[in-house]
Amino acid sequence: MLGEGIIQGLVETARNFFGSYVEKDRLTTVQYPEERHTLPEASRNFPFLLYDGTDPEAGLRCVACQICEKECPPRCIHIEKSKDKKPDFVGKQQAYPVVFDIDVAVCMSCQICVEVCPFDAIRMDKEFELSTSNRFGGLLWTKKELAKPNEYYRKIHPVEAAETDERREQELAAAQAKAAAAEAARAAQTSASATPGEASGNGASAPPAKTVVPQ
Amino acid sequence: MISAGTADQIWVTLDHWLVAHTPAPLQTLVSIVISVAAIIVVFAALFALTTIFERKGLGRMQNRYGPNRVGPCGVFQPIADAVKALTKEDVVPRSADHVVHYLAPLVLVGVIFLTYAVLPVGRNMTAVNLDSGVLYFFAVSAATELAVFMAGWSSHNKYSLLGAMRAIAQMVSYEVPLLLSSIGVVMIAGTLSTVKIVEEQARTSNGLAHWYVFTPWGLAGFILFMIAATAETNRSPFDLPEGESEIIAGYFIEYSGFKFALFFLAEYIEMFAVSGLGITLFLGGWSSPVSFLGWIPSWIWFFAKLLALIFAFIWVRGTMPRLRMDQLMNFAWKFMLPMTLITMVSAGAWRFLTPAVVGPKPLGGVIRWLVCALVIFAPYITLARALERGRKIEKRVYRYAE
User: Fold this and answer.
1) A3, A10, A29 member nearest B315 (Cβ)
2) Spatial contact of B64 and A29, defined as CB atoms under 8 Å apart
3) Is the pLDDT of residue A154 over 80?
4) What are the chain A neighbours of B64 within 8 Å (beta carbons)?
5) Any idea what the CATH number is for the domain that residue A95 is in?
6) Does residue A194 share a domain with residue A140?
7) How do residues B201-240 score in pLDDT, each as one tens digit?
8) Could you tell me if A178 and A106 lie in one domain?
9) Residue of B168, B175, B157, B178 whose CA lies nearest to B241
């Protein structure tokens, strides 16, 4: 009969109206600032720089190779390479970035910088409450603001971090095995030829005792 | 202790007291100013309340919370909205007709406030007791169409003109059933005065008031009146002139800031005015439905009924999708118009089926009721069948969009 469907519709909306006061399940809205969803593991926002240990300057993994700067589609990364060098986690002498800026107002969160980085130095963050009252300085992040410890990475992306850590441990072990082999070869050579001058020359280029080991 | 009569007449007493304390030459003027100010303040405040009720109510119907950030449970949202509307820039298009563009919202709001003059919001609480109050109401409210078209035309915008044309087509079409559905009341009450119509319905017998909605023609007339009123006020599902998804905001697309707020205000106060007329004509105005509740002040009854009708408007808005233009016109001319004419016939039957014709009260009354109901119900079924004939609802097949 004419008008029957309208009555049915009105009953449905009335049920919603009164039901929403009785059944809490009906209201699916998350009241954002007070309540919040836990973000999925794979969620990502803007990149950050990783460092090992406690010192963001000494432990910074970035070697200023500038691959990310060149690959960045919107060109939001700016790097200035250092003149001097510092040892990396396996003890090899590497350059480091004097300046590392990311303009997050320009960044499009594509993750290409993460994918191209051969040093596991840059990763994607989950932080999304980034509003600032200063739109020029506030969204241009320097090395100091970007550097975050490895523990933080493990916290926000546990699966990815475990995989990276494992790979880096293998690299470190391989480097140490190689150094040990070189040491053994050198010792054998020293004992065979017994030329002290050469031995001390080799010793200078040997890896330093203290290496930063990823935790 | 305030007696029931004092509470009922408290505003009238206050008005008389204020007028009595002004100098004699100014008394007429003060009396007018008080009436006008009271209408504007009360209904503008009701508008503010309704916006928050509507947003929260619609939210609940869609299983959302609605606004709940400003103040406890979002009750100060209207204040935030008002501040926003007042502080926004007032943009007028360069090619617009500036004078007409400026006048349109003022004319719209002014005209709608004029209709409140004849609404009895309580016992002895009518601003002007006109002998032809109902006629005055319809005559003045017809001028809203002019204001709507002024807005649409002067904006010099395709969408606003489309919206204005839709509005005119719709409002002219639905003016007819709106008027015809109220003629039954005028026939039975024998007067065009809104005050007398309410007094007629306030009479009680066996503890029950003589509201016209309790009669078959009154019930049908009330439903038809409210449908036509929804269309007259451009509210969903008849919101084609605004049609956010099609023509953005229709006739007031080029308005911003406070002028936009005036259009918004006009939409709501027109809804209150037309609901107020519906209450006056069919729901017994300020009278209580049963005599033992007569101690509740008359103005509380009026506003309680008004809030109930506002809720019904919100409920319907939360339920139904917008009509298409052809559906709108078919509904007006093929269904609403015949049904209102039939309601008039039924009202005539009610008038002449007196106890002398159908017999003494208890049985005679039932016979009268059933006969009048049949006069409406049988054509309704026939009309519904006729309108649905030849219309097959099938699953729509999309040939090109996969």
Assistant:
1) A10
2) yes
3) yes
4) 27, 29
5) 3.30.70.3270
6) no
7) 888 887 788 888 888 888 999 999 999 999 988 888 888 8
8) no
9) B168
Domains contained in chain A, number? 2
Q: Is B60 on the interface with A (CB under 8 A)?
A: yes
- One-letter amino acid at A23 equals E
User: Is B37 touching A (CB cutoff 8 A)?
Assistant: no
B265: its two tokens: 């205000």
Q: How far apart are CA A81 and CA A163, in angstroms?
A: 29
Is residue A86 scored above 90 in pLDDT? no
- pLDDT value at position B2? 52
Q: In this complex, do A21 and B60 lie within 8 Å of one another by their Cβ atoms? A: yes
The answer to the question of residue A28 being in a domain is: no
Co-location of A146 and A171 in the same domain: no
Q: What is the DSSP string of B1-53?
A: ---HHHHHTHHHHHHHHHHHTS-GGGHHHHHHHHHHHHHHHHHHHHHHHHHHH
Inside any domain, residue A2: no
Q: Which two tokens stand for residue B107?
A: 């004319």
pLDDT at B9 over 90: no
The domain of A184 spans: 164-205
pLDDT digits (tens, 9 = 90+) for B317-364: 989 888 888 888 888 998 899 999 999 999 988 888 877 777 777 787
Answer yes or no: do A52 and A141 share one domain: yes
Judge if A118 and A197 occupy the same domain. Answer: no
Which of A118, A137, A156 delimits the end of a domain?
A: A156
Q: Same structural domain for residues A112 and A194?
A: no
* Structure-block tokens of residue B112: 């709608």
Task: Count interface pairs A-B at CB distance under 8 A.
Answer: 43
Q: Is residue A53 part of a domain?
A: yes
pLDDT of residue B402: 62
CB-CB contact of A147 with A51 (8 Å): yes
Q: Which residue of B has its CA nearest to A7?
A: B319
